[in-house]
Amino acid sequence: MLGHVFVLALIPAGLLAYVFHSLIQKLEHTKGDHRDALFSELGGSKTRKIVGFFHPYCNAGGGGERVLWTAIAFLQRTEPNVVSVVYSGDTDASKQQIIDKVKAGFDISLSPDSLHFVFLTSRYLVEDSTWPRFTLLGQSLGSMYLAWEAMSKLIPDLFIDTMGYAFTFHVARVLGRVTVGAYTHYPTISTNMLERVKSRKKWHTNSAIVSSSALLSKGKLLYYRLFMYHYANSLRLASFLMVNSSWTKTHIDSILQHSDPTLDTIYMLSPLVFLRLFYPSQPEPPKFARIAYPPCDTREMAKFPLEGRERVILSVAQFRPEKDHSAQLRAFHHLLKSYPEYSTPDSVKLVLLGGSRNAEDAIRVEGLRALAKELNIEERVQFVVNAPYPDMLGWLSKASIGLSTMVDEHFGINVVEFMAAGVIPVAHASGGPLNDIVVPFKGEQTGYHATSSETYAEAFHAILTLPSNEEIELRSRARRWAVQRFSEEEFEKEWNASGWKKWLVNDW
Fold it and tell me: Which family is this protein grouped under (predicted)?
């Protein structure tokens, strides 16, 4: 009987082995032609190394994109023998248009001579809208297909994921036979997410339907357990891992140490175990990630005057659900309701500045406009959507208060920009803003934390009523800390310290 079961198990294992072997051979067969075509297009020596950056939303204009472009600009300045390739799903933009947007949005200059884009047509497979149910699983499987498309078009010498798609490591490392590394902004799944499901707390990752049902909550916990198991195994395929904050490092380090003996046993008894035969050997998997704080253009912002600030509360964040712009409107409404001295239109205003990436974001902006009207504050709120970089700098140069309401923000580069620009930050008491950014500098305060409409309003009022000398001292102190700790130079130093360069060897 056991013999028959074993034979039956070998059938799907054999099919999987055949498919994997065929895919590897297909990539190997076209690898040279694609590299020759790339070097013919760019010119120069064909002995140069290719570093591939997997960043399907490279043209989005957010903090994650600043990390990508700063890293590539650094390579262009310091590594003349390296060609940077970006795997992007932005098929509606040309290479030059993206370069121009990077310059306009971040003031980062890129050379087209050592930069190439591989445009991917399957990006919809990692869109939230494609997977209304089992979103984490769907997006992760979708990212694997997207990585397959990437490898089918060009195999680099080193593959670096800069968006957090760890499941792509299987495709690049096993099928593409490429060493992989990553810069992770946010873990795909975290212990916080599991705790919210356990406690049946409603959240943007845990709907009211699930949180209100004990049965559905148990089912989702099992789903998360399975996902965590495979996510941890994916991360262990990396040769080096960088993260953007101590919050992210804590979670990634914990996931790297995660074990589940029961699932290990189930896996060992399944046909999937035979796929391990195709996994190349590698040194000891990473036990921890290295922090490389995201770069901020602190030099330009540090030139802004600290005096003469307008009574503007400024938010700088993409119009994504987790940024919780509605909380900003409610906090501002609470300020106006609780403190009558701000009743006149010129006493204080709220400016929401951010990028709108797609139709869903545009709908979200309209919803926020409607909420402002419902709260009767629409005349005191200004929306600045998809502003060019100089316009953002203009607002940072004159605003008094910087507002961030995202809970468990992995880092918070917008908060760093506030501080470098001399804008006093008020950020949620969690994640990067709590642990890394808005922290005492030489034992003194650099900003404020809050957790509710009431505490945000209290912080606004405290800043708006600071004596002039204390206000200037606070702005100056916050700036000195931001410039010292979160500059491009600090990021570049940590990027090199990750040891990425020693893996730039094609040893298959």
Answer: Belongs to the glycosyltransferase group 1 family. Glycosyltransferase 4 subfamily.
